[in-house]
Amino acid sequence: MIIKSAEFVISNTDYQKCPPSAKPEFAFIGRSNVGKSSLINMLVQRKDLAKVSGTPGKTQTINHFLINNAWHLVDLPGYGFARVSQEARWNFGRMIEEYLQNRPQLFCTFVLIDSRHEVQKIDLDFINWMGIKQLPVAVLLTKTDKLKNSELAKSCKSIEQTLLNHWEDLPPIFITSAVKKSGRDKVLDFIQTAIDSQKNV
Length: 201
Ligand code: GDP
Known about the structure:
By secondary structure, the chain is α/β, with parallel strands linked by helices. It has helices at about 35-45, 85-100, 120-130, 150-165, 185-200; strands at about 5-10, 25-30, 60-65, 70-75, 105-115, 135-140, 175. The protein has one domain (about 5-200): 3-Layer(aba) Sandwich (Rossmann fold).
């Protein structure tokens, strides 16, 4: 997929105010600081479409971007940050859950996991919740430039094993680095294939 255009559409805290468009959506979610903004900017080849922030938990809205006038990229708030109150955190949870369950045009949610760490409980809880709700997920490993090949292989195996402890089948897993710009083609091909398969129905 060639990115011809990428524009910000709207930020919301209420799923009902998301764009009234049936265009396919692909959402990105993960713990704060996982590298989500950097990855989104890398995918769409824009320096600052998504804000790379030094403040965990700063993006607390559902952000829609229109790509190639064909599909929406949705930047969801980071989960699991410590600096907001319990009540606020619960609200972000509800906001995200409502969005995920009420957007039939949502084709897939990419769950970002830092390749240097084990799958955290909150990631697993989220993936399991998506599974129960029968919402499609793909796992995207970030910051893989920080690992040697052997370490990355070990990390991938461990993440796969953790997921297989809960699920019969593995979701698609993408290995990415915003620094090395790797994994971009595979993620964009996956998105394109999902869009095309819908068109063919
Ligand atoms: P977000 O909070 O999930 O949106 O994460 P950011 O994109 O703001 O990134 C958090 C920190 O990780 C920043 O200091 C980034 O420069 C760094 N980072 C993000 N992606 C990568 C990557 O692929 N490789 C490396 N080495 N650092 C990264």
